[in-house]
Design brief:
This protein is mainly β. The chain has two domains: about 90 residues, Elongation Factor Tu (Ef-tu), domain 3, CATH 2.40.30; about 70 residues, PRC-barrel domain (SH3 type barrels, Roll). It contains three helices and 13 strands. Strand 8 and strand 9 form a beta hairpin. The relative contact order is 0.15.
């Protein structure tokens, strides 16, 4: 089942003395923070609290946000290590054949011959292309059009082209 909330950043610490927080973006589009008015603070697994974003500044490696009600360093520190999320309705629109990482993790993988490889446990961002990690590293598969025959996140299934997988897949054994 798809989660309703998508992580867009992680609060790493207080920034300054007025309750601002430094956020490491977890999105390919950090500019999305400019228009952010409401976000959800992930408080515990599965619990989300709405927060109003009242200020945004950009640093070379991060985003500085002011969250309504956080006016001191101590208040900002209570958000340290928490994730900032948006609802799917407010997520960036994806291009064709692109997916949210959270939707790929947990998908069952098969090849065109019907062989099962296990679940996607992580998606590694390499710069050139993403790499799907299957069953904790037993198999690494580059996310290339020539190897991905079908990606069906609605049904939690990914099918690899068997012939190409033999060429480009990195098998643990």
């Amino acid at each position: 089942m798809k989660t309703e909330y998508l992580r867009v950043g992680q609060i790493v610490r207080a920034h300054g003395v007025h309750g601002d927080v430094k956020v490491i973006p977890l999105t390919d589009d950090p500019a999305r923070f400019r228009a952010m008015k409401t976000a959800y603070l992930e408080t515990t697994a599965g619990a989300y609290a709405p927060v109003a974003v009242t200020g945004v500044r950009f640093l070379p490696d991060a985003v500085v946000l002011h969250v309504e009600g956080s006016d001191t360093v101590e208040q900002a520190e209570t958000m340290k290590n928490r994730y900032l999320c948006v609802t799917r309705d407010h997520a960036v629109k994806l291009r064709k054949d692109t997916y949210f990482v959270v939707d790929l993790i947990g998908c069952d993988t098969f090849d065109t011959n019907g062989k099962a490889y296990g679940k996607v446990t992580d998606v590694l961002e390499t710069g050139a292309n993403d790499v799907y990690e299957i069953e904790g590293g037993k198999l690494l598969v580059p996310a290339l059009k020539k190897v991905l025959r079908e990606v069906d996140v609605e049904h939690g299934k990914i099918i690899f082209n068997a012939d190409v997988l033999e060429e480009v897949g990195c098998f643990a054994d």
